[in-house]
Amino acid sequence: MLCKGHSTSGKATTQWSVNSAEEHTKGPNRNVRRSERSVQSVAERTTLQRNVKRNQTKGGRKIWRRMPMGISPAPEIFQRKLTQALDNVPGLYIIADDILITGQGETQEEAERDHDEKLKRFLDRCREKNIKLNAEKFRLRQKETTYIGHRLTTDGLKADPEKVRAIGQMPAPTDVKAVQRLIGMVNYLTKFCPHLSDQCKVLRDLTHKDSEWTWTTEHEEAFLNLKETIANAPVLRYYNPEEELTVQCDASDTGLGAALMQMGKPVAFASRALTQTE
C-alpha cells in the first residue's frame, strides 16, 4: 500500500461546478416518474495526466496511472467526467454518483412513457461509455424517492424522513458538543421550517464560550418544541421559474426570517440568528 499527501498537486487542477440539490428540485411536479441510479466508484478507473502524481518511494519513483484516493479535486473530476459522458441525455439530474431520471406528462401513462424513453437513452449511453451501475441501488419508476437529502413526491418537496426520524429519536443533549450536533442536523432542514433560527436560540446560547452548562426546563421545552416543528414540517412547493415569486420577510430581536412563495404556497424558508453587533 502506498500512502501520500496530495495537498500540493491538488492545487494544480481545474475546477468544476457541482450542482446543488436545489437546482434539481424545480419545475412542474404533476405526474412525474423517477428512477434513481448509483454509479460504481470510478476513482481507480480515471486516468491522470502524465507526471501529475509522481511519488518518491524506497523502490524508486512511482507514478499514479489512475486517480488515487484522497486527492482533493476527485469529486469535481468525477462530476465533470460523468456530466460530459451523459451530456444531451434528457431528464437527468446528476450529483456525485447519484443519478435521477425523470419523466413527465399530463397523465400517468404519458409520464411513464416519457420516463421509459429517457431511461432507455440513459442505459444506451452508459453502455456506449462503459459506465457501470450499481444494481443494488436501482429504484425504478418511483412516484416518490429520496434524493440528496430531499423527499421528492407528487405533492411537493419534503424533508428526508430519515433525518427527521433521527432528530426525533435524539435524547436531550448532555453537553455542548451534543447541542452542536443537534443544531448542525437541524440547520440542514432550515428550508423546510419557518423561524427555525429563533426556535434554536435558547439551545444555541448554551454553545457560547462564556456560557456555563446548565440544562433547565426552558431548554427541555425548547428541545421538544424543536422536535415537534421538524416532525410537522410543511410540504414545499416545487419552484417553477415560469411563475411569479413573492418574498415574505420578518425580523425579531434575535433573528431574521424569510419565506419564498409561489401561488400562495411556500417554496423555501430561510432564517438566521443576529450577531451581537447586529
TrEMBL record:
Residues 1-20 have a biased composition (Polar residues). GO terms for molecular function: RNA-DNA hybrid ribonuclease activity. Residues 48-152 form the Reverse transcriptase domain. InterPro entries: DNA/RNA_pol_sf, Retrovirus_Pol_polyprotein, Rev_trsase/Diguanyl_cyclase, RT_dom, RT_RNaseH_2. Residues 1-43 are annotated as: Disordered. Residues 215-278 form the Reverse transcriptase/retrotransposon-derived protein RNase H-like domain. Its EC number is 3.1.26.4. Pfam families: RT_RNaseH_2, RVT_1. Gene3D superfamilies: 3.30.70.270. Belongs to the beta type-B retroviral polymerase family. HERV class-II K(HML-2) pol subfamily. This is ribonuclease H. The lineage of its organism: Eukaryota, Metazoa, Chordata, Craniata, Vertebrata.
